[in-house]
């Protein structure tokens, strides 16, 4: 939610800061920088956070990440210069290693019989964030314009994007309180010791338990290089490519929606952009709840992943089709709406790739004790991809429009070529998921 909230209004915020000098085509460059900074800083620190969680536990590191996200969102809402936006996004990235640790926590709470369903449920909550975040960002941005009686104070004119950031910060505080009071530590070496049954006063199994704890601690200190086997690298490479293309898509979509029609965009307002992106998040979440587990059982993880990956191409092809429709009709009408709904259909299938790739990454770990390190590697790689993805996609978008490359559609051609590479990479995944249960 914290990352998706800014998408509906970030392009308008960049325009209002005046750093583009009125050049509409250059908005994409600066928007891409802001959207990428979080992932740049996360890539530099996430592995350290995950390795730390293998030593001190998952819960303390998750707490730091939530509090860091809360503070950074408040700073973002109070930013009035480009550099203050840069600092707040960097702070959020440095303090947030939660995504990889959350996946590790889920893996420690599940086994091979329910892992796919658990990751599907995690994706549902992610989709709730992608539904609520853009809706909140679009509706609550510039509240002095929408509700002048309630937000008529000069504070809201000075900080017109503080309200959505403050609401997200409040929700993060609630999440922190839930974590604090309801989540038990999942790292086996940091769990509360359980009562051990005794016979004649001698603790049964105590020596075995001590040996297991020592073995787990030693595995937690394994050098990263020893984990870099093909079994681990192939799923992580697929996750990296998935993260790159997904965030490139999620970044280009609001940029395309907000680009003026004379540049072959749709010229939508932030509220409309937020509504469309919220619909995507809602439908994708419902689709995950209703169909993901059944489709995994029917097709198997690898086949489902390959089908999901193949859906990226029609999603991207819809953008030049919409550009042509806007140019031909001179307005945004029902034909554009049908094209976006087509994107929504394929995007719902595309989103199932995340649940399946997490299963492959978890199964690649040689033992549960190094799940933090494995997920840290995956999150580091995906953070690098997510750092490059928005900046590259938005820069290519701006370059395509500025120089009319392939009639302004060069960015979509590049994304389709990368999707072809991704489809080949998906075919390298193992046909069966190995059982890592202890």
Summarize the structure.
The chain contains 18 helices and two strands. With 438 residues, it is mainly alpha-helical.
Structure description:
The protein is mainly alpha-helical and 438 residues long. 74% of the residues lie in helices and 1% in strands. The protein is built from 18 helices and two strands. The protein has a two-stranded antiparallel sheet with strand order 1-2. A hairpin with a 2-residue loop joins strand 1 and strand 2. Helix 11 packs antiparallel against helix 18. About 6% of the residues have low confidence.
Give the SSE order as H and E letters: HHHHHHHHHEEHHHHHHHHH
- Indicate the radius of gyration in whole angstroms: 23 Å
Instruction: Give the amount of beta strand, in percent.
Output: under 5%
Helical stretch count?
Answer: 18
Tell me roughly what share of residues is in helical segments.
over 70%
* Mean pLDDT rating: 82
What strand order characterises the main sheet? 1-2
Question: What structural class do you assign from the helix and strand content?
Answer: mainly alpha
Mind describing the biggest β-sheet? Answer: 2 strands, antiparallel
Shape call: globular
Distance between the termini: 35 Å
> Which stretches are poorly predicted, pLDDT < 50 over at least 5 residues?
194-219
Number of strands: 2
């Amino acid at each position: 939610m914290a990352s998706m909230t800014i998408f509906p209004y970030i392009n308008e915020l960049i325009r209002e800061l005046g750093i583009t000098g009125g050049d509409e085509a250059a908005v994409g460059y600066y928007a891409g920088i802001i959207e990428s900074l979080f992932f740049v800083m996360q890539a530099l620190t996430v592995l350290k956070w995950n390795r730390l969680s293998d030593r001190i536990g998952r819960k303390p590191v998750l707490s730091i990440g939530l509090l860091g996200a809360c503070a950074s969102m408040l700073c973002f809402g109070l930013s009035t210069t480009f550099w203050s936006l840069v600092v707040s996004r960097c702070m959020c990235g440095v303090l947030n290693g939660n995504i990889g640790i959350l996946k590790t926590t889920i893996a420690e709470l599940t086994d091979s019989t329910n892992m796919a369903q658990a990751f599907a449920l995690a994706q549902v909550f992610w989709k709730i964030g992608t539904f609520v975040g853009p809706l909140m960002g679009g509706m609550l941005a510039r509240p002095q314009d929408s509700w002048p009686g309630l937000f008529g104070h000069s504070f809201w004119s000075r900080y017109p994007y503080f309200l959505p950031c403050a609401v997200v910060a409040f929700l993060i505080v609630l999440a922190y309180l839930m974590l604090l009071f309801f989540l038990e530590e999942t790292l086996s070496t940091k769990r509360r010791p359980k009562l051990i049954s005794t016979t004649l006063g001698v603790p049964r199994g105590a020596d075995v338990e001590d040996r297991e704890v020592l073995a787990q601690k030693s595995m937690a200190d394994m050098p990263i290089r020893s984990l870099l086997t093909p079994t681990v690298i192939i799923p992580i490479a697929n996750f990296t490519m998935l993260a790159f293309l997904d965030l490139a898509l999620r970044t280009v979509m609001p940029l395309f929606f907000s680009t003026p029609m004379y540049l072959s965009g749709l010229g939508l307002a932030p509220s409309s952009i937020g509504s469309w992106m919220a619909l995507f998040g809602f439908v994708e979440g419902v689709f995950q709840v209703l169909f993901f587990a059944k489709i995994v059982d029917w097709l198997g993880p690898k086949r489902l992943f390959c089908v999901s990956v193949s859906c990226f191409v029609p999603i991207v092809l819809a953008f030049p089709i919409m550009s042509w429709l806007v140019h031909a009709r001179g307005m945004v009408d029902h034909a554009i709406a049908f094209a976006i709904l087509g994107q929504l259909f394929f995007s719902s299938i595309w989103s199932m790739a995340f649940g399946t790739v997490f299963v492959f990454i978890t199964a690649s770990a040689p033992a549960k004790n190094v799940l933090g390190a494995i997920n840290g590697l995956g999150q580091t790689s995906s953070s690098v991809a997510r750092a490059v993805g928005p900046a590259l996609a938005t820069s290519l978008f701006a370059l395509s429009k500025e120089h009319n490359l392939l009639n302004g559609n060069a960015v979509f051609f590049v994304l389709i070529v990368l999707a072809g590479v991704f489809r080949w990479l998906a075919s390298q995944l193992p046909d069966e998921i190995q059982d890592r249960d202890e």
